[in-house]
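It is worth pausing here to work through a concrete case rather than discussing structure prediction in the abstract. The textbook approach is simple: state the sequence, then state the predicted structure, then interpret. We follow exactly that order.
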Amino acid sequence: MDRTLNPEMLDSSPFKQFTVWFDEAVSAGLPEPNAMVLTTFGVGEGPHARTVLLKAHDDAGFTFYTNRTSRKGRDLAADPRCCALFPWYGLGRQVTVEGVARQLSKEESEAYYHSRPWLSQIGAWASRQSSVLASRAELDDRVAELSARWPEGTRVPMPDFYGAGT
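Step two, the predicted structure:
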């Protein structure tokens, strides 16, 4: 397979080109083609990197969801500069996106939150991302308590610390 890449092969819109390559990664059956390594900058610290999932992309940007009290949430609130890397190794390709994150509205975040499975909504409440647990039982106890509070089939409100960035 010829992997030559010339500028004339690319769409003049980086967003359109990303869509072409993203669709190729999906079609190729790559595991988690929407996984991206998100790098943020801590205040007075070095960079922090972790994998998050891309949930949408268009000319306005790349959307992911997070707990706003997590380290990445705190980092982005203090310094919205970030970088995302899509490692599509199976295609011999990676894409890097650099820019400034912005929070989406509560309404936009809620629409996605309520589209998630019930247990994922419970998990958003139970997991305090980036905090250390004494044991797995602590998390299991939170899930059990919240599951009793909002049994399956009931509406689980979106936590105020949950939201989207793009």
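Step three, interpretation. The chain is about 30% helix and 25% strand. The mean pLDDT is 89.
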